[in-house]
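== Sequence, structure tokens ==
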Amino acid sequence: MKKTILLYGVFLFMAPACLAQGAVDENAMFSDTQALVENKPAVKPSPADLKPNSLGFSGELSSVSSLVLARGDQHNDYQNAVLGSFLVDARYHANYKLFANLEARHIWEDGDSKGYLRECFIDTPINNKVYLRWGRQVLQWGRCYLWNPTDLVNVDKKTFIQRIGSRDGVYGLKVHIPEGTKYNFYGFLDTGKDLDTRKMGGAVKFEFLLGGTEMAFSYWNKKRYLPVYGYDLSSRVFGLDVNAELSASQGFTRNMMRQDNGVLSLDKRRDDWITRVCLDFGGSLPFNDQVNKIKVAAEVFYNGAGYSKNVFKDQAAYFYKDPVSVNGAELVAGDKKTFFFGHDLYEVNYYGRYYAALFTTVNNFLTSDYSLCANWIENLNDRSGILSLGVKYQNIKDWYIDFTTYSFLGQKDCEFTFLNQAVGLQLILGYKF
């Protein structure tokens, strides 16, 4: 409880401090935020002002090799895959746009080949006042680097371990109505990942600029779900880029595990207010007369829907009010771990109550073609974490090599160690065109 009060205090302290700062740094490094769009006059451009029609193609080919060394005498895991992404960008004059992101991958070990349509949408502005985006899309909904408690729209959350390929988009209609440079209204009609109108939902956001601080209030709701209210801000405080998000809902949007007198059941805690708060701050550090040589961002996250006690270590036997199906049979008793995974309750990086993370990048490492990254994440409840170190080389002809190591730290049977992974190695050889 003291940790929760402290985190809320930091959040509330930052809000008034932000209002006294200068202009927003639109090039803030660790912010995944949609930039304010300047409101253009509602005047039809002359033919001479219109840009010619265009059709562009780009993409990326990469070979990915990964090796995970297990703890003890467990089996090591090796995988080698080839990934290709193909982007289409078609524009009609300056107003209309068609974009598609197609992806294919092949895993050599099992001969499995799959294709994906990650995004496919059309932009259709109305009189340069209302901007519509129709189709499958990944939205920028949330400001923080890793955790986005206000983002209930995207189907794929951001990951700490480098994602191979692109995030999946969600089908829907996005509406953006700017009013000058100070106000923006966003709306999204959500039909889900599978274009299912029976699971239709929606989100709205009102974004405004107050002094040197950009902030927004948001609302999300969906059939058979509980509404979620959100607030976020972005500014500069004492020379640091600061982003914060807060979400609140009466009850949770998905099932949680409940323990009551030796019985485990599914519960959405409809009688409780569930809050999530994320705060990140960072900036650039000069070195050897290079202004942006080192970039650092730190992030803390309070997850009101998380578990403060370790589910994986509890080996006691419980009765299951909601049975677990295993190989066609229903289990009515067992440990917490079986119940937890049997009902698909685990969300990586959202399992615990408190988290912290640090992201560091050193540009022009050795030469201008190299960059060095050192990142860390920890579940502050069970004290398990991941430390990653990576080096990337990219030349001017768009060839690149990315080598990253992951060390899984902590005691056995914690969030980042329950799979018995000790060290992960990942090598990516790629070409962008």
